[in-house]
Amino acid sequence: xxxxxxxxxxxxxxxxxxxxxxxxxxxxxxxxxxxxxxxxxxxxxxxxxxxxxxxxxxxxxxxxxxxxxxxxxxxxxxxxxxxxxxxxxxxxxxxxxxxxxxxxxxxxxxxxxxxxxxxxxxxxxxxxxxxxxxxxxxxxxxxxxxxxxxxxxxxxxxxxxxxxxxxxxxxxxxxxxxxxxxxxxxxxx
Length: 189
Ligand code: HEC
Fold this sequence. Notes:
This protein is of the alpha+beta class.
């Protein structure tokens, strides 16, 4: 009998201690964010090789929001891609926490940290509720330049398509290795 009481007390105790274990949440967030970025890059590549960059703009417009929407439905967490210079302001605009972290990411990269390894996570208590927030930097790769690079690197037909679909596009002028933005996860606690 005593033993059972001890075990259940321990279980209660460990629940209290580990309920908000940030490193566990961080691992779980990474396990969602990394495959998302990988799958997205593969889908992007496939769209470009199937129909060229201009037609891939249309595919990108659907693929990324569909993928992140699906993950959000499956996990109950909000997953988005955010940036300080957005193409799609509706989905990509960073909130206050994300803006602060993106600025810190830029400072960390300027000090020599590799963008691929830059992350942030924090348990935040906002008026809307408590959540675990996670962000991972997205670095620009050679395959991104045709749609996010300098003006002279973007083919005319891609630019025309961007002008039509994203009249307020700010997401150009990036070099390979720059931080294009971040994948952001907000998990209600
Ligand atoms: C074929 C053109 C194309 C290529 C190639 C491309 N993108 Fe994009 N990117 C887009 C479009 C279009 C959007 C807007 C999607 C939307 O409407 O949600 C976008 C949006 C984004 C966003 C979301 C934030 C924002 O600005 O709205 C990030 C982050 C991003 N791209 C990163 C990348 C990275 C990193 C690569 C290379 C691995 C890449 N993109 C390759 C066209 C492209």
